[in-house]
Every structure is written in C-alpha cells, then in structure tokens.
Amino acid sequence: MSASNGRATLHLPEFVPFRLNRLAVAVSDHLSAIYRERFGLQIPEWRVMATVGLVRDCTARYVGESTRMHKTRVSRAIAALVRRGLVERAPRASDKREMPLRLTRMGRRMYTALVPLALEREQALLVCLTTAQRHAFQQCLGRLEEFLGLA
Amino acid sequence: MSASNGRATLHLPEFVPFRLNRLAVAVSDHLSAIYRERFGLQIPEWRVMATVGLVRDCTARYVGESTRMHKTRVSRAIAALVRRGLVERAPRASDKREMPLRLTRMGRRMYTALVPLALEREQALLVCLTTAQRHAFQQCLGRLEEFLGLA
DNA sequence: TATTGTTATACTCTATAACTATA
DNA sequence: TATAGTTATAGAGTATAACAATA
Q1: Distance from the CA of A3 to the CA of which of A23, A63, A82, B63 falls in 20 to 30 A?
Q2: What was the pLDDT predicted at B50?
C-alpha cells in the first residue's frame, strides 16, 4: 500500500468531524460502564434521571428540549423509570396534559450515588489536560455549540 | 418545576461527555448532508473511501484499524462500494487472504469531488473559533485521544 | 385546532457467532 | 492453529406516523 499525493488531502485521523465522533463514542463507552452495568440505565434513561434529579417537576417536554432527545425516546425512557419505581408523575391540575416528573425516594438514592461517580469519570478524563487547556477546551465547546444552535 | 440544591450537582448541558456526544451528532449530521444525499454514501462507506483514497492498496483490516470500525462493518461497506463500481480489489499474490483495495476511475472521481467539500465543511465549522482557539482545541483533542488510546 | 404525551410499526445501524479460504 | 474476510442472524436504538386526552 502507498500514500497518494493529490492536491487537498483528507487524512481521516486529523479530520475534526471524525475525531469528534470517535472521541464521543470512546467517552460514552467509558462512562456507560457506570450507568449501564452498575445501575441498569441506558443513555436516554440516564439523561432523564440527570434532568429530573436537578429540575424537579419538569415535564417530558422539558427533558426532550434540554437534552435534545426526540419525544418518543423521552417517553419510553420515562416509562421504563416509572416501571422501575425510580420516577413518579401525576397530571398537573392546571393542565392535565402535562405530567410533572420527580424522583422517588429510591430514584433520589440512585441519583445521589450516580452523580459523584459520573463527575469523577468526567474529571478522570479531563486530568490529561492542563487547567488552561481545560478552560480553552470548554470554551471551544461552547463556541461550537453556539455556532451550531445547540446552546 | 424547581432546581434542587444537593451537594455535587451535575448539570447535563455542562457535562463534557454529554456535550461531546451532542456536538459529534450535530457535526456528523451537518456533514452527512454531503456524502449521503449528494453521493449516496453512508458513514462507513465514506470512511472507506477516505482511507482507500489516501492509502492505495490498503486492506480491509487496515481500514478497520485506522477508522476503529468493526470488521463486519468494514466488510459490508467495501462490498457496497465494490457493487457500485467505486472500489476494486483482487487477492494479493503473496497472501491470498488479503485483498488490497483501490479506487476505480469512477471512485477516484467521486473522491476528488468529495474531499474538497468535506474539508470546506470542516473549515466552515471551525471558523467560529479564533486561530489560537483552533490550535488549542486540536491539541486538546490530541491529548484526549492519546489518553483514551485512540491515537 | 394545537399541544402533551403514548404506542404501533418499521427502519437503520451494529455486533456476535459461525463460516470459508488461506497460511 | 491462526488470520483475512464474509454472511446469517439477532439485537440495540431510533424515528415516523397515528393516536388519545386535554386545552
């Protein structure tokens, strides 16, 4: 095998979209060991837990908007958590279409156990960057998110 | 709905693994408009094209290793490209298990059209960063890749 | 008529495992 | 016995579209 030498070359390992995708998969795999194997949560479920744990009485719609998940994905994740007794809900009196969500006692317990572990993993990843790099990296993420309308 | 104020809080929109995943999806969607709608390529196929276009006579195994795709995913992508007449292959004389890959004339034409568009998209994304930020960002990606054993 | 949320269905993408053939 | 590559099968994960209930 031999390298070609065309005009504009595209080397996949240096191509930012490829790198981002590969990095996101690796980080996600790294993290999912916690919430999947240890707590039996899938990504959408973990995102619901994280959202409801922080913003009590939020609705499925809010979860979908803040995590950018499709409403069917959110609906199924919530249903699974309700079945497992981790999340509870009841129609809101002022508008019975909405169903404010909150963690049950058991859900809160799981959340309280989960969050420090997730934050630890995030830190364990970021230790490979200097403090300055970490700031710069997060700033870049913010700019890109803003640029892409994700913020 | 109301914010809780526990000890260590995890705000998903600030949680790096979540941000990376969301960003990667958005960038990928942004890019796939090119190779999917315009050239009828799926991500694995596009990765094979990009690899073979640069490293002539590489094998499926090489593609899998350099793009971190499973061999079945690579195999199917190559098969699709061969069917479409974009890639050709023949067993290597010295070891008939291996099948060096190369772009056909048509494949090369597509590659030559595709690469500048992909690079343009990458640049169009990175313009939201200053030159210094861009360097810092790529450096951080490199450190993280190294740290995770992706490099 | 619009909105919140659910569900039936189908589709995309992927890996596991078993396979062929070569070495 | 190991490796390159293929394929059958099944499993995630997801969205589209139609739906019920409420506003």
Answers
A1: A23
A2: 96
